[in-house]
């Protein structure tokens, strides 16, 4: 499956690059988190600062519209800082840490104004991706989910296996294209769908309370800042 996605992505990039007005390299900073809100507990997930890097192709249609597909490797993560259960605050620094690396294909539609030297714009960018690596760190004792059957490493391995590999979502934001070669964008993004496939968790392998705790965790969302160089 990974090889097929890689072949499709490479073929797509080669095709559009051959017809594009400009080709560029992009990279930058990704700050993301997840969230949880259940009837008996609220958790505060802190942003994790990671990165993205890749390639882009660009078409400009007159002075207003531009289309910019991108293929990149992007790493998103989240870190649980605290929980509040039954009105009691509990510090859980690093008790839950999740990180996932995705190969992402996006198509950014930009609407801007050509001011000769620079071109400010707003953008909408839907994306689809596939997880190629990642890590889990779930401290059962710190979060109160101890089942007596599994070690922390057991739970980490189980939850890494039930992560949804396919991701999709959208980003919105703005940026500026300078001297027709340099670009800076800032956008807020949101992954749609669930981070974990709760149906794959075997009740015989892990306690129901642990299973339920993952069920309510939202998918990645956050901010990314991207620099681009176009030729």
Please describe what this structure looks like:
With 231 residues, the protein is α+β, with helices and mostly antiparallel strands. The chain has a single domain (2-230), classed as Porin. It has four helices and ten strands, in the order αβββββββααββαβ. It has an eight-stranded antiparallel β-barrel with strand order 1-3-4-6-7-8-9-10. Strand 2 and strand 3 (41-61) form a beta hairpin. The longest helix has 18 residues, at 2-19. The two termini are 33 Å apart.
Summed over residues and divided by their number, the pLDDT gives a mean of 81
Q: What's the CATH topology name? A: Porin
**Biggest sheet, in brief?**
8 strands, antiparallel, barrel
- Strand fraction: over 45%
The number of helical elements comes to 4
- Strand-pairing-aware structural class: alpha+beta
Strand order of the largest sheet: 1-3-4-6-7-8-9-10
Brief sketch in words of this structure:
The protein is α+β, with helices and mostly antiparallel strands. It is built from four helices and ten strands, in the order αβββββββααββαβ. The longest helix is centred in the N-terminal third of the chain and has 18 residues, at 2-19.
């Amino acid at each position: 499956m990974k090889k097929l996605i890689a072949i499709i992505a490479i073929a797509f990039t080669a095709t559009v690059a051959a017809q594009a007005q400009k080709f560029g390299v992009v990279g930058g900073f990704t700050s993301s988190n997840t969230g949880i809100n259940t009837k008996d507990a609220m958790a505060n997930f802190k942003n994790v600062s990671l990165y993205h890097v890749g390639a882009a192709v660009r078409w400009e249609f007159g002075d207003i519209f531009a289309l910019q597909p991108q293929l990149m490797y992007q790493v998103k993560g989240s870190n649980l800082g605290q929980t509040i259960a039954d009105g009691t605050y509990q510090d859980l620094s690093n008790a839950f840490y999740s990180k996932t690396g995705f190969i992402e294909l996006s198509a950014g539609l930009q609407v801007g104004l050509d001011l000769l030297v620079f071109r400010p714009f707003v953008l909408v960018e839907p994306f689809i991706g596939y997880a190629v690596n990642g890590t889990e760190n779930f401290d059962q004792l710190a979060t109160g989910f101890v089942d007596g059957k599994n070690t922390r490493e057991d739970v980490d391995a189980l939850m890494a296996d039930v992560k949804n590999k396919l991701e999709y979502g959208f980003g919105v934001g703005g940026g500026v294209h300078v001297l027709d070669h340099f670009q800076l964008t800032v956008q807020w993004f949101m992954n749609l769908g669930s981070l974990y496939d709760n149906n794959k968790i075997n009740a015989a392998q892990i306690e129901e309370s642990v299973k339920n705790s993952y069920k309510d965790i939202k998918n990645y969302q956050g901010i990314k800042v991207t620099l681009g160089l176009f030729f």
